[in-house]
Protein 1
Amino acid sequence: MRRFSLAILFLAAVVSLGLLPAAAQDDPGVVNVYSSRHYGDLEGPFEAFTQATGIEVRVSAGTPQDLLTRLRADLQRGNRSIADVFLAIDAGVLSLAASEDLLVPITSDVLNANIAEEYRDPEGRWYGLSIRTRNVIYNPDNVTEAELAGLNTYADLASPEWQGRLCMRPASHIYTVSLFSSLLHHLGEEAPAVAEGIAGNVSRYINSDTSLIQAVAAGECDVTVTNHYYLGRLINGSAEDQAVAERVAIRWMNQESTGAFININGAGIIRNAANYDNALRFIEFLSLTENQCGSPTCFPGSNYEYPTNPAGELNETTASFGEVVFDTSYPLWEYGALQQPAIDMLMAAGFGFVEN
Ligand SMILES: [Fe+2]
């Protein structure tokens, strides 16, 4: 509603300055977005876009898989979606959408200049706008220095010492699927045994990264794996959230080998988009150096994520987590192809698909 009001205010101001004829033929229009972002401050960068361009941003929210299903149905039924932009929190879902020709190749010098190559589709069908990592969160009161020294890779979570001490997100969630697809990519035929070992150590499946961190803080589990920004949100949350954050620590995985697993928040333009020009302007706007900053008005900063624009500025809380090496050896555009094999592997490993 607030976005809508801003667009109206902008238009009212333009009209009152006599810049527009009564027919408002220069109405900047709208951009319709299918978005799987689910974080409160997202409106910051969207509002900034509306203020800068007058273009109204209309969002339909859902999980990445549900929105992909909707997109397929839209384009099968009428050859046009109600949405112009597909904004997804998972590179696998973006690459599936691209491979099914639901997204069109974009030719944009702005995007190619702003977004580093490893964070965009080689064919220009989607561009990463922020980066998240999925790493170990542990309780320093319950994990010894020696145990910690032996916890350096995701595969180390299969070690017997974590038996009954590990909480994980169920395999029904895309975060788990994508992480385990990286094990398949890197470990090949050794991956199923690792998945089985990890599944055997899990004491509880919890379908919320925030609740996983809370469980570790409360001593219910000693170790878990979550996206890094959930810790950022707790650090900047209520006094109660901050107390939870103080009881846990983050540990980057695979720092001596392939780097920490990453995913992106990325966007593409949907085939036959009714508002193509606005969609392009929207994605380009979010890629600009000034909009890749660490503050809540910027796309990465609004969720404690890392910028995909190398000139972007890091959020203060995110910077406080320390240096991290990202895994860019598992190309983001290959996540889609390994999604189903990862689900099959998790099923065979006896990994939980629901909370318990
Ligand atoms: Fe998330």
Protein 2
Amino acid sequence: MTTKRKEVCMLCGKPSLKSICDVCAQRVQSEQLGKKTKEEKPKG
Ligand SMILES: [Zn+2]
């Protein structure tokens, strides 16, 4: 049994050296920006 720590993205669970992979990092960033600037929600 190997107790090796797997470094994966904590958001998508994909293997990544960082706790949050670039893809998710960008996603989170854009989401936060979008929330701050304006609410982009389609009506109806
Ligand atoms: Zn990720």
